[in-house]
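Example 489.
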Amino acid sequence: MAGFRDIDKALFPIKSINTVVQLFRNQLESPSVPDLALLSIVSGVIENSLTSRSNTALQVCEPVEQNNLPVLELKTVEILYNKFRSIMLNAVEANKSKGFATRELVKKVSDVIWNSLTRSYYKDRAHLQSLYSFLSGNKLDCFGVAFAVVAGCQCLGFNDVHLALSEDHAWVIFGENGTETAEVTWHGKGNEDKRGQEIGKGVSARSWLYVNNKPVVCTRHMEVAALVSAINPSLNSTHDAYEVALLQQELLWLLYDLGHLKKYPMAIGNLGDLEEISATEGKVPCKVLFEEAVFSARNYYSNQHVYPYTYQGGYFYRNKMYEEAFESWANASNVIRMYNYSRDDEEIYKEFLEIANELIPHIMKIESSGFSANTILKKPKCFADLLRFYDGICQWEEGSATPVLHIGWAKPLVLTISRFDADVRAQVNIVCDKSEENMLMKKNGTYFNNNNNYDKENGTTSNESPSVKNSNDKDNSPFHPSIEALTAA
Ligand SMILES: CC1(C)CN=C(N2CCN(c3ncnc4sc(C(F)(F)C(F)(F)F)cc34)CC2)S1
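Predicted structure in complex with 5A1:
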């Protein structure tokens, strides 16, 4: 049984980040599983006290003393913790004898949370993810609702209910074999919520939103990693609260060192972003963390996730490692091409739009200024990766009910391609890969293969020009017709 035990209470009143880390360590290493409600309340109170308007006096100098947090009294946490438990226990007649949750139970818990929320509020605001926000302001964002449902089920003694995460949506799994699924929160703007329904049976099954049924299915410990990842240090649009970011970074390292981020690519990526800003002595460098996130997605989720490559590409871009950025973005595109674009996929659409129409053109401008000695414009591999990047987006559009590309994409694309001299472009071997499997996945949608079309061993050896293997089921041209046309030009 989880819970607020004496060894946890002994840490109060909490005055430092180190003590919060100790509380999380106690919970994570305890023989029973961590108590999600307790940890969400504690992190939520601290985040709120350091980021609410009353505390916007910028901390221009970093606090030197060990007591770097506003004092957090035991009473404050106990009142909120007991309030959450009583809401759950009073509202839900939990028939514990069954042991496993039912769809009705999960829906009932979701309704209790849902019906307590303020009628209308700005859902995308920051700091609406924790149980503190729910208990003190009756406001939650879409992740917060899903998390609160799982924490509520834990309160009621249903340890089979777990959080399932895609790259832009959250739901729950439950039942004897953990194979039942249920929507418990909303997604996006103006979409009717599907709460209570099973996950992605219809056309949405092929949208990126449900990651081809390869979500991160959390353990209790990974649910702690999700709440820590959801900590939001932003004070305003330009500044972060230093202590909140430091707390998040230290808690992510605690979870990383205990092995609870192994199957959670986005949490590893979040840690990588924090480490890039301020590296922790004696830890793996952020570049390695981004590689580990990619490995995790390839190893545990059949390479169906996009974000690990955009975390990595963003890192390379910010550090002017443009050749590497092109490769990461081509690998991201190699993932998305397997999906059908649907209206629920706006978030990843915006991601690719920014890369194609902001980041790549910015790189081209710099590289064409003539001052870069080792310019990527002379590198066939860069041209090959760019073609893969654009081709993946074209394939993403193919077979989708909603179009992806429009004229706004074409101008930066043509400009970018034209920056490469003909002799460089000519060094890219376009090899037609007729693998049957490659042809089938998109059309039938029954099975996605995850083979990375870019064939490394035939490609980028130093003296040989890179080859790009791709297939397109229209004719046997290696690329989507519009890309084919460009390469012929
Ligand atoms: C390469 C990037 C643009 C940089 N940050 C990215 N994030 C920031 C952190 N982030 C996340 N980081 C950890 N866990 C989760 S679970 C989740 C979600 F499924 F969408 C949920 F739950 F609906 F909000 C999102 C998300 C979302 C993706 S992707």
